[in-house]
Write a structure and sequence with these properties.
The structure is a homotetramer. By secondary structure, the first copy, chain A, is mainly α. Chain A is built from nine helices and no strands. Chain A binds a DNA duplex through helix 3.
DNA sequence: CATGAATGAGCGTTCATTCAT
DNA sequence: AATGAATGAACGCTCATTCAT
């Protein structure tokens, strides 16, 4: 029993790696095909075009991401555990799917001015879910007296920057990642928990 | 008396804008020339090639950045003021030179796997200076009893992520920036200051 | 009992229409297959290749044309009736098989420099038969004293141009066709009949 | 003193010949460039694209054609001389510019279903002028008592078919052209002049 | 009889770059 | 300082065709 479309799968694997390493415009369809051990036209047999292949990859990566975001805990003894969870989630993803994460971190920024682009659409969707989750967490933490009485939207904003910054840092491998999880969690705990 | 090379300046201005909007690979020399009101060969008269023009722009932008980083205060009544200063510096840059900042945020990530690239070199240099500055701040803050006794390198790491994340957020215009400065500063103060 | 090769027939029907509308080079095998509701390889099952399909269509169309040409009347009270007959034959064909006629009128001209091409071969064959028929008509018309004493080969030449020009005009739908038949017949009658 | 754009001119010359011989779709830009002794990109330097080159050629050819049509005599002792003139004009063009004429005869038919195409536009324009000229001729011929009392629009129609058929015949070199002029003129004279 | 998967060859087009002027 | 003309290399993509099933 093999995978149903072995060559298609090879194409996607090669494309993820090359797009991540060289960006969308910096990756040619010929290089993708060669790296996958197939010929160029096969890309167009399985996908509408180069953009279609890119979109396919991105949507697959985000589908998993969205799924995980939706399954974050909403009932925990301590509210801060949920903050820990969402920070940890981002680190997990960066370690489990380094290439997809790198791909998003490296190719999407250049597309954000194009509001209709997949990158923009998916990143906005992700941000919306993160903001919703964090807002509820912080509100509940304050209500319960577990968190300091901070300005909710602004603090959420800072946490989003931190969360996504960590993802980028991990993906781009910008520096030592050892202890990053604990450091981030501690930093936030000291800032939030009374 | 006007600028010495008016057309060269036009070229750089056009290139900054176009590189920022469409990325390096997404910007053609022809479009740059047209936007600058000159012809393509002039690019090669003033710069070695397309890469040289890009490098010129990046180095100019970073020269100013480095200069500001080097002039951050090292003596302040409260150490936390220095943390405020470096956070503020990044926001100031993003507002004063939005196109250069956007350019860096959007085109550099796709080049970071190439260790020899200007982007990589300059970003690493910037990070080194930020890390050095923050390390000394936090060390002094702890020594003076102003900051909690945190793990220095790890906390610096978190602060770098936060600082650069804010820069990106501002540049890419990802969301409302109102109150961001205060929110970030407050978040850090609560986490650091005892 | 239905047709023996229903899908083959569908292929031919689709090909006739598409070749007529878009020319040979402007029609892809994929579009033919899709229009016929089958897949591309079936074309190669039923025909040697794209050229073979085209040739098949052309030969079929011409077989009917040749047949009609061979059955033109050779004994009529008035010789001019035969001229009327051949003019009428061309108009009938253009109306009965508009797509085949259009196909020939639109795709063959671009192939006539290639003496070995089916188009050239079939068109030459048709012209030969028309010339033979008309030559005999005019000769007999003159002998009988029904026609003016015109130069036979040259007059035949003019009639061929007229006959085929009418076919083209009808097929390409270049203008109003109402009254064309009568006009052409009258024009010729006045010119030929004493 | 040479031509202002020698290589551009070579491109056009090569394109006229190749388009005429192989049709638009059957001619590749590479073959045009090679036949002109230049490289492919030069086509795109001088013209917008392959279509632009084709259009340029067609418009040039028709400009001359229109010019000649507009300069046909409108005052002649005998009206039939004007019929002779327009028949002769078409034969002259076919002999002076055989390649342009062949090009039009071979590539345009396949485009006539596309009402917006240059071919359609120019051919319709030409036909309009021919119809206008012939209509006036025949009307005047009848009024003067020089021509038989024929139905004007229908007779014009037949003459258009004949005129353009002759052009095609000449261009495509379909048969012996010797005596064609005299034959056509005689045929028409007998049919029209009382 | 019919298809899904795959390919070699080639196409129209663009790009960064050069060179004579 | 600046340009018009030109090119080598490559790119995204399509096409007719094949082959195992």
């Amino acid at each position: 029993m093999g995978s149903p479309h072995p060559k298609k799968h090879e194409l996607v694997r090669a494309a993820v790696r090359l797009f991540a390493e060289n960006g969308f415009d910096g990756t040619t369809t010929l290089r993708i095909a060669k790296a996958a051990g197939v010929t160029e036209p096969l890309i167009y047999y399985h996908f509408s075009n180069k953009d279609g292949l890119f979109t396919h990859i991105l949507e697959n990566a985000f589908a998993d991401y969205f799924n995980r975001l939706d399954n974050l805990p909403t009932q925990t003894p301590k509210v801060f555990e949920r903050i820990e969870a969402i920070i940890g989630l981002h680190m997990d993803i960066a370690m489990e799917k380094p290439e997809e994460t790198y791909l998003i971190a490296s190719t999407c920024p250049a597309r954000l001015k194009n509001g209709a682009h997949v990158c923009t659409r998916l990143l906005n969707e992700a941000r919306k879910r993160i903001v919703r989750y964090l807002s509820e967490c912080i509100k509940e933490g304050i209500d319960r007296g577990e968190f300091a009485k901070v300005n909710i939207p602004q603090t959420v904003n800072v946490l989003v920057v931190l969360t996504q910054g960590i993802l980028r840092q991990y993906a781009l491998g910008l520096d030592q990642r050892r202890g990053m999880r604990k450091a981030a969690v501690d930093f936030c705990r000291r800032s939030l928990v009374v």
